[in-house]
Amino acid sequence: MSRATRFLRDNGISVVFGIGFLLTLLGQALAGRAEFNEELKAEGASTIGLGEYLTTAHFAVNVTENWQSEYLQFFLFILLTVWLLQRGSPESKELHKAGTETDREQLTGDHARPDSPKWAVVGGVRQALYSRSLGALMLLIFLGAWFAQSVSGAAAESEERLRSLQDPLPWSEYLGSPDFWSRTLQNWQSELLAVGSMAIFAVFLRQRGSPESKPVGASHGDTDFEG
Asked: Residue 118 in contact with residue 109, Cβ under 8 Å?
């Protein structure tokens, strides 16, 4: 097996999703530019090229509003599933494992394996930080994307107002505007619905060979059981 083939086999999920991300981002840019140019034409303004559109607040706010909601979903799911359970779902831990679990279960400290990450072994502050690093990163990306959405949204709103010969909208006022919260909440509700429904559907439905599903013949009541 060649090195390239081995790399693709070992990293198939990240490679396919990474390519899909870039293609859909390009598609969003093309469609967004066409939509934006239609708005400019309706207002009697000159249209813009793709390169210029990529620097606009219109493009930035449409991208970041989706990113912030996705990372909010990951953060909440990672954090809440430490304590919350769903009987029969492969998305839930076993019912007796609610909480942060013991060092033996988490392979930390004296229970670490030879190939365990160094910070899982050392204890103290470093182990405490590493033990929460995934959720912390998801939270930071969410907050950063949400802030970027607010800034780019305020800029997009101000650009639109200026084309209508109105005063621009300050960022502080945009944070309380219907546009900001409409963009935010319509994304949050869809992410919460998707995660919640996945956890429930996976109790009763199966996908043969997927780690997100239980084995086809597993009982509906089996929890934390990957197929």
From this structure: no
Q: Is the CA virtual torsion 127, 128, 131, 134 positive or negative?
A: negative
- Residue 162 CA: distances (Å) to CA of 41, 49, 87, 165, 187: 15, 20, 54, 5, 27
pLDDT digits (tens, 9 = 90+) for 51-75: 999 999 999 999 999 999 999 999 9
- Count of C-beta atoms within a 10 Å radius of residue 221: 10
In whole angstroms, what is the distance from residue 193 CA to residue 124 CA? 38
| C-beta separation of 66 from 188 below 8 A | no
Extents of the domains making up the chain: 1-55, 57-100+134-227
pLDDT at 130 over 90: yes
H/E element, 126: helix 124-131
pLDDT-based confidence at 38, cuts 50/70/90?
very high
- ∠ CA 93-97-99, nearest 5°, is 100
pTM as predicted: 0.87
Q: Which two tokens stand for residue 215?
A: 């084995």
Question: pLDDT value at position 185?
Answer: 94
What pLDDT band is residue 212 in, cutting at 50, 70 and 90?
confident
**Which residue, chain included where needed, has tokens 């239980």?**
214
**CA 183 to chain CA centroid, nearest Å:** 16
Residues sharing a CB contact under 8 Å with residue 109, sequence separation 6 or more, in sequence order: 103, 120, 121, 123, 127
Distance CA 142, CA 194 (A): 18
